[in-house]
Amino acid sequence: MRCGSTAFATSLDAIPQLDLGDTYGALFIGVILATLLFGVTNVQAFIYFQTHKGTGMTFYKLVVICLWTLDALHLALITDGIYYYLVTNYANIAALPELVWSAKLQIPVDLFIIWGVHLLYVRRIWIVSRGRSRALPVIVGIIVVLGSGVAISDIWAVYQCQIFADLSKHEWAPYLTLGTISFLDILIASSLCYLLATSRTGFSSTDSFVTKIMGYTISTGCITSIFSLTAIITCAVMPTNFIFFGLEFLVSKCMTKAFSQDCANQQWYRFQYMSTHTSHS
Question: Which residues have C-beta within 8 Å of that of residue 25, sequence separation ≥ 6?
């Protein structure tokens, strides 16, 4: 037993001491925070299904199930990636620069979640604009669809890389992608706020209700935009570490959490009912 301990201690002494705090350590912290956000999404999904049980399978139930599945897949991929670097290849320095398959695959899953949620919000803009001009939701929808081209180019850039150092050849990709995500978040939130503001009826109870939804919409859009902009800033200021990668893990988690919370929020359903009832009257 004593000999085994001595051999283990000797092998540890032979391992070069590397400072991985701001690289793979940042990825590890990003995975922990992503797991916490996934737990919050689970609670919100549970509340939604408990609140709407007995209503049969609806569009929003299918959406919540699909988002939860993709979110779980994304978490599994980033967990597999960090496990590969820190556990499977512990002390294997040659494996650290490699871009493992799960680290690549999490990018398209991440972007699919984000653009999927954006399209769901475009659908909400369409519903809120019922009875009025459809120009705004059509324009926003076209911009979101065109923005998916940025996501495709980002996926292409990632799959051209074999090691992390290759990412420097496509440094435009994270800036363009995260910038587009932030722009779309702001565009969608401002469009919803405009439609909600013009939905005021003059009745104090209805107007206060609309004001609450506007505040909720602004806060939701701000949270997702803050993570995207923070990732852009850290990528520009600290391009040699992986802190911005850890922040990128959280962007899709925030999007899923925001929409799941919207689904669990009864105020949106009440407003959609009111707008539908008003348009038919």
Answer: none
Q: Show the DSSP H helices in the chain as ranges.
A: 2-14, 24-51, 59-83, 101-128, 135-158, 172-197, 204-237, 243-264, 266-280
Q: How far apart are CA 186 and CA 143, in angstroms?
A: 12
3-class secondary-structure state, position 163 = strand
Nearest to 145 by CA among 177, 122, 126: 122
Q: Would you say residue 35 has pLDDT above 90? A: yes
Q: Read off the tokens for 181.
A: 């995500």
| pLDDT 10s digits, 40-88 | 999 988 888 888 787 777 888 898 899 999 999 999 999 999 999 989 8
pTM as predicted: 0.83
Residue 104 scores a pLDDT above 70: yes
Q: Which residue, among 212, 181, 183, has the nearest Cα to 196 in the 3D structure?
A: 212
Give yes or no for a contact between 251 and 224, defined as CB atoms under 8 angstroms apart.
yes
